[in-house]
Description:
- The complex is a heterodimer.
- By secondary structure, chain A is α+β, with helices and mostly antiparallel strands.
- Chain A has four domains: 2-88; 94-151, bsu07140 like domains (CRO Repressor); 170-230, CRO Repressor (2-Layer Sandwich), CATH 3.30.240.20; 235-283.
- Helix content of chain A is 55%, strand content 13%.
- A four-stranded antiparallel sheet of chain A has the order 2-1-3-4. Chain A has a four-stranded antiparallel sheet with strand order 6-5-7-8.
- Chain B is mainly α.
- Chain B is 82% helix and 0% strand.
- In chain B, helix 1 (3-27) runs antiparallel to helix 2.
- Chain B starts with a helix and ends in a 7-residue tail after the last helix.
- Chain A binds chain B through residues 164-167, 186, 214-216, 234-235, 237-238, 241-242, 244-245, 248-249, 252, 255-256, 261, 264-265, 268, 271-272, 275, 278-279, 282, and chain B through 3, 6-7, 9-10, 13-14, 16-17, 20-21, 23-24, 27-30, 32-33, 36-37, 39-40, 43-44, 46-47, 50-51, 54, 57.
Amino acid sequence: MQESAQILLKSISLFFLVWAAIRLMGKRNMSQMTPFNFVSYIVIGIVTSLISLNLINLIYGFIALLVWVAFSIALDYLSIKSKVMHELINGKEAVLIKHGKIMEENLMSVRMTGEDLLAQLRSKNAFNMADVEFAVMETNGTINPYLKSDKKPITPHDLGIKVAPQAEPQTVVLDGNMLEEPLASLGLNPQWLSTEFDKMGVSLENVFLGQVDSSGDLYVDLFDDGVELPQPKVKEMLYATLEKSQADLATFALQTEDTNAKAMYSKNSQRLEDLLNKLRPYLLH
Amino acid sequence: MTVASQVKQTLASLKGARGTLRVYSTQARDDETRSVFTDALEETNIIIEDLGKRLQTLEFEEPQYKGN
Lengths: 285, 68
């Protein structure tokens, strides 16, 4: 009885202790771990379980635990502060493909076969070796290929298209509850939100999700998917209105006989056309 | 439909567009976007002014259609 109470007490205190120690060792994703990090986590885990099951002396266990945690933190700290230490501890990334040619010696030094390399490249959507200009194996073992410039995905920049800058959308309603903080960070208040809902004819309780995009338009998803909501089309409408006005002005310019009016109409029609060109990336996307 | 009423219609839809532009020029979060909308607002103002002047002349020329 006494021993089980001891185990209970030890396990509970070690649970929180190890949790704190792991948090102290930093936020690191499992896939980003170097092999050595993995080893230290396993040692910490095993020592912890040995102590909590009363299999080893409490003091000995704590010494081992302390050393592994402290050294892990110390090595992490050193590798942040010094580039040399970083390379020593985490290793250096290995260039596997350079100028489109596989570096066989580097492949050998990271213990990879040609098939492994091809499989890793395929997982990065590079099925054709001929498309890869450069590939590097990071210190945690992932391979990142850099495609040849004519095989890279096309961007608006490549096409010479101007696109409007867009900030991340903010979620302002979730599960029927208004989220005050994101709303305030947009400089909006609950009254604004209720006005928008009134315009759509819905109430807050029926809204599962509401997001405000960077131009301030509200997108809403309802619990009841049977209800069709008009999605924001204000920008498209604005563009259409301006385009129609531009066409009207051009027509007036043709119809009128007054030379002054003709000049005024065609000048403003031109002005509106320039404006439309400028607004297009912001209104139509 | 007379010319004056056609111009009036265009003027009205431009005024509506100006309202929407004003809303976007205040609620856009990005500085660049906001300045584009503000510029557009000013341009639209100039056009509306010109068109308003022309409408006055037209109504003076065709007083019988005034108010249509």
